[in-house]
Amino acid sequence: MKITSATIYPLSIPLIEPMKMSREMVVDAKTVLLCLSDEEGRTGWGEASVAPLMTGETLASLVGSIQYLVEQAKSWDWVEPKEFARDFAKILYGNASAKSCFEMALLDLFTQKQSLPLWRYLRQTNNLPDIENSTPIPLLRMLGGSFDKELADAKSFRSLGFRHWKIKIGSLSLKEDLQRVEILSNLLEGDVVSVDANGAMSLSDAIQFCESKEASKLAFAEQLIAADLSIEDFVLLKKRSPIPIGLDESIHGEPEIEEFIKAKALDGASLKLIKTGGVLPAFKAAQILLDKHLQMNLACKVAETSLSGAATASIGFAIGNVPWGFSMSNQYLQFDICDQPLVAKQGHLDASQLSANGIGVIPNTDRVKSAIAKGHTVIQC
Ligand SMILES: [Mg+2]
Questions:
Q1: Same domain for 81 and 223?
Q2: Is 126 part of any domain?
Q3: What is the pLDDT of residues 13-52, one digit of tens each?
Q4: How far away, in angstroms, is 133 Cα from ligand 1 center?
């Protein structure tokens, strides 16, 4: 499979409402779409979003890395997806997000050529029996904004079938966060309710949070302390916490998963393609976690479009089990880039939405062009 041309689209898509994290306020999705054409006239699409505090990428740096990768790769023959990561490493060190974007577009082409939906290819290539349909994946809904808004959203989205929740914490005082968490946990009793501090808590506050009765109904607490703290701090937090500990910013791929499993410092992890370097490494990471009887959630960065959502969901449909839910972030966008965006049905994503060959989502080029980020242009390679 040869790449004959490539187009890179740096996008900015406004969120329906700003999303407050502990260390940043996200107002738009800064995301990059890549469209590859092969020698037989197919087109394949990839996507990766910027995450300055998670991967260190900005829109300009991500576009630069993708352009470099694609220009170098155009003369190559792309035959076996299992070799893609090794081949990318021969071109560019690190840069997991750019590699994820490129891998996604190559996989879209490859699985279209194989006449298979991506999720079914993932089963086939991992020696899992082929199935026509898979279990719906539970979608995880983030709660944010004013406390009244969080309560109203919790009630309205619960009535729509959502049962997995994430409460962003770490920007208020410990006492205020505990009060919010207790009220929301009681309101959503029986559901999978989690918190995420994006590393904003001190170790002592994190331990106090986990030991507090107000937090006792949580299904897990994600990345309470900063990823650059020592492994001993994570081990201590895990030892002291009566509630399960999830990690996100600390886990970029297989090496960290192995390290934290060995140290007994986690109960589960959040997997994002921009961290692992693509679908295939993320699938492997998910399998390692589940084989060790640990939990995982699948997540898009806030926010990515249906394209990245579909590629990430393919891992869940292939495995058939996403115990901590799937954070599909196109639900927070003012508009999506395809004519038929992925949508929640009873709080779940259904595999029937990804029944087309390839990734299963085809961007509408006019919509994509309408979302080019200010100060950026479409790049032809
Ligand atoms: Mg997180």
A1: no
A2: no
A3: 999 999 888 888 899 999 999 999 999 999 999 999 999 9
A4: 29
- Helix (H/G/I), strand (E/B), else coil: 173: coil
> What distance in angstroms lies between residue 196's CA and the mean position of ligand 1's atoms?
6
Distance of alpha carbon 236 from alpha carbon 265, whole angstroms: 8
Give the span between the Cα atoms of 178 and 319, in whole angstroms: 34
What range does the domain containing 230 cover?
A: 137-354
pLDDT per position as a tens digit, 256-303: 999 999 999 999 999 999 999 999 999 999 999 999 999 999 999 999
Q: What's the CATH code of the domain at 270?
A: 3.20.20.120
Do both 66 and 158 map to the same domain?
Answer: no
331/253 same-domain check: yes
- State the total domains in the chain: 2
Q: How far is the CA of 270 from the centre of ligand 1 (A)?
A: 7
pLDDT at 22: 82
The three-state (H, E, C) secondary structure of 23-78, written as one string: CCEEEEEEEEEEEEEECCCCEEEEEEECCCCCCCCCHHHHHHHHHHHHHHHCCCEC
**Confidence (pLDDT) at 174:** 98
Is 90 exceeded by the pLDDT of residue 252? Answer: yes
pLDDT at 144: 86
**CA 239 to centroid of ligand 1, rounded, Å:** 21
The share of the chain scoring above pLDDT 70, in percent, equals 100
CA of 64 to the centre of ligand 1 (A): 26
Structure tokens at 185: 């946990």
User: What is the CA(5)–ligand 1 centre distance, in A?
Assistant: 35
Same domain, 11 and 75: yes
Domain-located, residue 127? no
Distance 29 CA to ligand 1 centre (A): 16
Å from CA of 4 to ligand 1 middle: 37
**How far is the centre of ligand 1, averaged over its atoms, from the C-alpha of 55 (Å)?**
13
What mean pLDDT comes out for the span 242-254? 97
Instruction: Give the Å distance between the CA of 48 and the centre of ligand 1.
Output: 16
